[in-house]
């Protein structure tokens, strides 16, 4: 069927972005943003982009990127654009939301069509720092080298000398991101693209972030819940993927597959599951000391158990401060358990102050108040030690639901408080000769929580004429209207969240794994041992260089954490003996993708390594290598297969001509399919 000459030319032949292997991040972002703005001109939902012809343009883009793009900043750029389109001002047609969803779909579809090793490289590729001036390079030594002062998410904290100073005030990093992203894409409402040369590189706020961290910052929950991404995150959680290989002064951070024979055993201290295990052990000890101090309750002097409780509290507070600095405010606020940690620290500080005042003034009442304050810790410490359950899928699914229901409950209570204050004022004035303000307050609270008979008993005492009708209205509104509305709202909120609860759970789980593992600090001291470097090493910053400080911290870590490392080694050795030593990522070893052949059926085998195609040294026979838009056809390559004859000998059969013809036919079929899909998308949009 001939195509209409008046058809949409851009829909038939979309201008696919050209991305070189060494193009800078800002150029990749610009190229992709132009494509999304030009090709996605009609609003569509996420499901429509994923399942209908509305997503033809992004399917073509994915195939183009898989075949032609080897730039490791590609996933970072797609997820950054997702953040960009999501934060633009909402338009009536919803195009920005459509483009944001398209960026997320392209990112995870691209990862599903490359090898596992390439997926790890793309997801964990950290954006390099911008080039510093000569003065800052001389002052800081090697450019981009991480030290003990380097933070996890640099764009959420004070900028280092390697990044330009942002004009935004300190503490407003989200505003800084929004301002930076204003120049990343082309706003469809603008007639001309933003010239970022005048304002500087708009992508500097993302310096030091890898793809998974950008996904967490951009709320790409669907992306993080994909199987290929979760396999990488689970590998980080179990320690199969590590970011350090040796515990030395010149060690550099680099994502890699854990090799037990080559890696330093002290690197296992950075594995998230071991961090979580010892965190639970620390909280169990903390809770035991807490109960011991409350049972002992010595009002006259501080006991040894109380001193231990103070040490544990100080170690816990310092660990939380370090976590906040390393993870950044946005990552830190995502984990709801961090709110419990802050409250535990505040209650502990209040107990310490009141306890000290009570001992100095020799006041039994103040001392009793101090222990009363300490008793409030149980409200948060007991759930905190049970936070391990949140890593289980069942309990981890319920927590986001409860969180959203609590938000709706707080919002609804604003209406309740407004109505309550109005009726309280009226009833207090009408019954001012019979009831005090406090008495009337408690009466109305009891009526609100179901004691309606109490309101009917006292309505004549409030006022003989106005009391009964007003009390009847109050009881009807509270016990029927408000309570029923609240139940309906919470039920609707629960239904909405539970449908996406798995994504919420995996998002929180992913954030915790990234928060615990991807920090740039080589040495990580477990509490309460983290007080040792605070007391003995931190003052040495005035006298030692950065390299000397790192070497000192490494030595101190090996001395203090040797028993913990021995316990981890014993656990892993026992686990390998019982469960075997099967590699968790069989396709991620050296070679050309042979590892996937044993575990995946032929129809589901993954694409070959992009690194091989980038170097142009080897090519896989799975699909054709394109030379460019002007290339006359597929490149010639030599493929051989091995067959066994009846005698058991191996006979090598040359299939060069057959493979070339099949590749040429596949190319023509792919072009025809893309043309038909583009035409269908055009008809659907009209």
UniProtKB/TrEMBL annotation:
UniProtKB keywords: Membrane, Transmembrane, Transmembrane helix
Record keyword tRNA processing present: no
Domain Calcium channel YVC1-like C-terminal transmembrane: 283-574
Region of interest: Disordered: 609-643
Pfam families in UniProt: YVC1_C
InterPro entries according to UniProt: TRP_calcium_channel, YVC1_C
Transmembrane segments: 277-294, 330-353, 373-391, 412-430, 471-490
Protein name: Calcium channel YVC1-like C-terminal transmembrane domain-containing protein
Organism: Hyaloscypha bicolor E
């Amino acid at each position: 069927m001939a195509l209409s000459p008046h058809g949409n030319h851009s829909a038939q032949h979309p201008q696919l972005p050209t991305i070189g292997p060494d193009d800078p991040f800002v150029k990749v972002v610009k190229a992709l943003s132009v494509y999304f703005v030009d090709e996605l001109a009609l609003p569509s939902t996420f499901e429509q982009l994923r399942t209908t012809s509305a997503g033809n343009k992004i399917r073509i883009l994915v195939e183009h990127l898989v075949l032609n793009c080897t730039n490791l900043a590609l996933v970072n750029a797609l997820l950054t654009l997702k953040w960009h389109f999501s934060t633009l001002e909402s338009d009536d047609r919803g195009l920005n939301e459509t483009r944001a969803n398209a960026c997320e779909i392209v990112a995870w579809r691209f990862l599903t069509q490359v090898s596992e090793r390439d997926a790890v490289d793309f997801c964990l590729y950290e954006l390099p720092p911008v080039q510093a001036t000569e003065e800052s390079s001389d002052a800081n030594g090697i450019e981009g080298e991480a030290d003990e002062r380097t933070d996890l998410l640099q764009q959420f904290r004070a900028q280092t000398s390697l990044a330009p100073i942002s004009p935004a005030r300190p503490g407003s990093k989200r505003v800084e991101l929004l301002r930076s992203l204003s120049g990343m894409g082309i706003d469809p409402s603008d007639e001309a693209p933003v010239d970022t040369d005048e304002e500087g590189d708009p992508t500097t706020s993302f310096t030091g972030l890898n793809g998974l961290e950008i996904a967490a910052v951009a709320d790409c929950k669907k992306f993080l819940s994909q199987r290929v991404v979760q396999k990488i995150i689970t590998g980080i959680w179990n320690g199969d993927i590590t970011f350090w290989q040796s515990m030395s002064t010149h060690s550099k951070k680099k994502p890699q597959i854990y090799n037990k024979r080559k890696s330093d055993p002290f690197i296992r201290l950075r594995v998230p599951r071991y961090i979580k295990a010892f965190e639970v052990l620390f909280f169990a000890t903390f809770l035991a000391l807490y109960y011991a101090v409350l049972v002992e309750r010595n009002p006259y002097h501080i006991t040894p158990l109380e001193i231990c409780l103070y040490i544990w509290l100080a170690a816990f507070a310092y660990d939380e401060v370090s976590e906040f600095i390393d993870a950044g405010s946005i990552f830190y606020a995502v984990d709801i358990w961090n709110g419990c940690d802050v409250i535990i620290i505040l209650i502990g500080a209040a107990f310490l102050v009141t306890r000290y005042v009570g001992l100095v003034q020799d006041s039994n009442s103040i001392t009793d108040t101090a222990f009363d304050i300490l008793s409030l810790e149980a409200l948060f410490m007991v759930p905190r030690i049970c936070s391990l359950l949140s890593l289980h899928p069942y309990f981890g699914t319920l927590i986001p639901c409860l969180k959203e229901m609590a938000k709706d409950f707080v919002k609804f209570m604003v209406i309740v408080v407004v109505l309550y204050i109005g009726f309280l004022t009226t009833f207090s004035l009408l019954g001012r000769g019979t009831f005090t303000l406090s008495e009337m307050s408690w009466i109305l609270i009891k009526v609100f929580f179901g004691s309606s008979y109490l309101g009917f008993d006292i309505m004549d005492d409030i006022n003989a004429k106005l009391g009964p009708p007003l009390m009847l209205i109050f009881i009807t509104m509270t016990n029927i209207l408000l309570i029923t509305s609240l139940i309906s709202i919470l039920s609707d909120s629960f239904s909405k969240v539970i449908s996406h609860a798995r994504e919420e759970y995996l998002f929180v789980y992913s954030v915790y794994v990234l928060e615990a593992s991807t920090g740039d600090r080589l040495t990580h001291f477990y509490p309460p041992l983290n007080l040792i470097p605070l007391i003995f090493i931190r003052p040495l910053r005035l006298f030692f260089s950065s390299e000397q400080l790192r070497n000192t911290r490494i030595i101190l870590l090996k001395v203090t954490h040797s028993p913990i490392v021995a316990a981890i080694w014993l656990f892993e050795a026992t686990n390998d003996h019982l469960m075997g030593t099967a590699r968790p990522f069989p396709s991620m070893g050296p070679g050309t993708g042979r590892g996937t052949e044993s575990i995946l059926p032929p129809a589901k085998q993954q694409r070959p390594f992009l690194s091989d195609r980038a170097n142009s040294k080897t090519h896989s026979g799975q699909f054709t290598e394109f030379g460019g838009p002007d290339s006359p056809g597929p490149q010639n390559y030599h493929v051989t297969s091995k067959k066994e004859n009846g005698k058991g000998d191996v006979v090598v059969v040359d299939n060069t001509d057959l493979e070339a013809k099949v590749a040429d036919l596949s190319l023509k079929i792919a072009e025809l399919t893309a043309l038909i899909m583009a035409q269908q998308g055009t008809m659907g949009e009209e």
